[in-house]
Design a protein that fits this description.
alpha/beta, 8-stranded mixed beta sheet, 9 helices, 8 strands, globular
């Protein structure tokens, strides 16, 4: 059993309680830091089964793990996608189960404004992609160009392919049997990561933290919205 579980949606510390309130599995920097602070630099295993989430929260968790003085082994138990792949790169040794999936892609966001705003947003996103590729480059030794191309294509990798690229160091239980017979699982990324809409989160803050200003109807609406998000995998 892992000492630290990176499961569900990766979220900011300020939003973690909302996901907890609705019983949505999540991981925040604060939760990881609390475990690291109590571990006293002993060797730790970090288990990952996450479709990603908030980029900045993922980067913070990467930093926390990188700064830890003890040895860290990362085990990818199911899926490591998006921000979860950034976190996985913090391990001194990264292992994956034979059926694991690893996915890297470009950063995305919602934007509003005129053509100048859109051009600026594009620059921000491309800069964010390069920042992530720096982390991948340290782990894999690949060039920025090759990594950005993989991210452009939204690249899915099974355990053997992730090891070939250098994201994974070891396939758990592999004794050479997977070399010529890679495992490939097919599934949709949206089903792995439930990201709540900002409007939903703000309404829940007002409903729970300021109950006097909220009606039961308001709360029912938000529950219905959450159910819809769950049905469509949390993607907008």
């Amino acid at each position: 059993m892992a000492d630290i579980d990176i499961k569900g949606t990766i979220v900011d510390d300020d939003d973690a309680w909302i996901y907890d309130y609705f019983g949505i599995n999540n991981t925040s920097p604060k939760k990881v830091k609390e475990i690291l602070d109590g571990a006293k630099n002993k060797p730790l295993t970090v288990g990952i089964n996450s479709g990603g989430g908030d980029l900045f929260a993922g980067n913070e968790i990467y930093y926390l793990l990188q700064s830890y003085k003890g040895k860290i082994t990362v085990d990818i138990m199911g899926i490591a996608a998006s921000a979860a792949t950034v976190i996985s790169c913090a391990g001194d040794r990264v292992r994956a189960t034979p059926g694991a999936q690893f996915m890297i892609h470009n950063v995305s966001c919602s934007a509003w404004g005129d053509y100048r705003d859109m051009d600026h947003t594009s620059e921000v996103l491309q800069n964010a992609n390069k920042s992530i590729s720096n982390i991948y480059r340290i782990k894999t030794g690949m060039s920025e160009k090759d990594l950005l191309e993989l991210m452009d294509k939204e690249t899915w990798m099974d355990a053997t392919k992730a090891k070939e690229f250098g994201f994974v160091d070891e396939i758990i239980g592999d004794e050479g049997k997977l070399t010529d017979k890679p495992l490939t699982l097919r599934n949709a990324a949206g089903g792995f990561c439930k990201i709540l809409d900002e409007e939903v989160k703000e309404k829940i803050r007002n409903t729970v933290q300021k109950p006097a200003t909220a009606t039961e109807a308001d709360f029912s609406i938000q529950r219905n919205k959450l159910n819809l998000l769950r049905l469509r995998g949390g993607q907008r």
